[in-house]
Structure formats: C-alpha cells, structure tokens
Hints:
- By secondary structure, the chain is of the alpha/beta class.
- It has 12 helices and 11 strands.
- The strands form 3 sheets. Strands 3, 4, 5, 6, 9, 10 and 11 form a 7-stranded mixed beta sheet that branches.
- Helix 8 (199-209) links the parallel strand 7 and strand 8.
- The longest helix is centred in the first third of the chain and has 27 residues, at 59-85.
Amino acid sequence: MQLRALMYFDELVRTNSMRAAAENLNVAATAVSRQIENLEHYFGTTLVERSNRGIKLTAAGELLAARAGRTLRELEHVHQLIDDLKGLQRGKVTIFANGATVANLIAPVLAEFSLRFPKLRFEVAITSARQALDALASAEADLVVTLFAPKLSGVKVRLRSEITYDLITSANHPAALQPEISLRDIAALPLALPDKSFGARQAFEEQFLKIGVELDPVFVTGSLEMLKELVLREAAVTLLPALAVHREVRSGQLAAIPVSAGKGVRTSIDLCVAPDRQLSFAASKLVDFIEAFMRGADRPKQSERKKTSV
C-alpha cells in the first residue's frame, strides 16, 4: 500500500468530496479516484460509495478513516524527529488551547518564542478544553493549554498552575469600587456562568452550597466571549480568573473584585502533552518556554485592579 493513497483517502474523508480533495491536493479528480481504487484493491473491499450526492464511507471505510489520520500525523512526527537528529531545528508545532488562555498566555509566548526560533512554524487551534484533550489523544496536537478542563485521563500534565476566580463586572458597576466582595453578595447579583459540564461551574456550585446558597444564573453559556460581552454590556456579572480578562481590566473596561475571606473558587490551568509520544525539538523547546512563562506569570496586582476600576 502506498503512502500517497492513504494521504488521498485522508483528504477525501476530510473534505467529503472528490473534487474538493483533488483541488486541495492539486491533482485531477481521476487521480484521487484511482488511489481510492488502489486502497480498495489492497484491502479487498469497498471503502467509498459514490453517488450524485457525493461520497459515503462504508463500514470498512469508516474503520480506515479512524486510523488513517493518526497514522499520517505520526509519520509526520517521525519526520520531525529525524530532522532533529540532523540538527535542522525546524518543524511545526500544533497547539490546542481553549479561548481563555489565548490572549494572555499563548499569544505573548508564541510572539517571543518565534523570534528565538524563526525556522519553526506554529498552528494554534482554539477549541473547548475537552476537544483539546481529545486532539492530544488522537495525535492532532503536540501540546495543549487548558483552562476549565474536565478531569484529565490519558494525558501527561507538565505543569498545573492554580488560579483564583474573581467577580468580574463592568468598570461602571457599583461593586467595581469595592476592595472585595462576599459570596452571598455575589449570589444576589445577575450572574452569567458556564454550564454545569464545566469543572469551574461545579466548583462554584460546591462553594456556594457551603454557605447555603443555590446559584440561579440569569445567563448560562459555554462561551468565554459571550460571558465577557454580557458583562461589558452591563447585563450581568460573572466569575472568571483575572487572567481571562487581563486585557479588559488593564484597559479600564472591566473590573476584577476578589472574593472576601479567602473563599474564592480555585481551579487549575494545565499544560499537557501526550504521555507516550516523544516531543520533537520544536515542541520540546516550546513546552519548556511555556512552562517557564506560566511559572513566572502572576495575576494583576490589587493596585492595578483599583486603578482600572475607577
């Protein structure tokens, strides 16, 4: 079986169209069809059913599709490791991250790192924490950085940094001038929170139940951007790490008010890699760089929050 046939099949699965696959591969549609026929001859069964509506994978085709992508990604990974042996110090790193970590962690890290290693290339996918961890398991990602992650399994956590959640309000909100706020006072405000599938929301529920309060948020959404937008429009307040809104706090749009009596919810931000894959030169250097950045990063100082809240 030729590697080219597997590549053509993987592209066909991704695009679900002979024509689109051919265009992306810069070959004729007949070339794609011929390589699929080669695969079908090799496996002795039909992989793709063709019709006027497009293509549909057979059961055998689905089975191959589930493994072809990972096989190709692993081969590309081996190619990078061989380049490393040659001392070429080039390659690509694929990073999966969820939205809250991008502006204040991933973007500044990559900006500085790429100046040190100009031959390296980077691909950043912004997904949910669960999708990021799934991408690591399927070899789509070299590393992931997650906030609000579900319980981890099948991944290696290189660094876990604890973060605290503050009350996030618009800069014009009356609470923005307070040095701290109690959980009971927070519960009385119109809240926008992530849904109960998020570890952070589960931590909120547990913390508020300790004081006999059941949360009744006005808005429930899994989108960080939606949470921030609702707060910016003064329709609600929310609970987020200051890291997630650092830019808006610094610009004076939002305020971050600590929870009083040390009762703020705490969760972790995780830097993860696959436990069974050797990191390439590029990925290894980037993981070390992110780890150093996370260890040195700090939340906005109290004096900054007061300054940007008035």
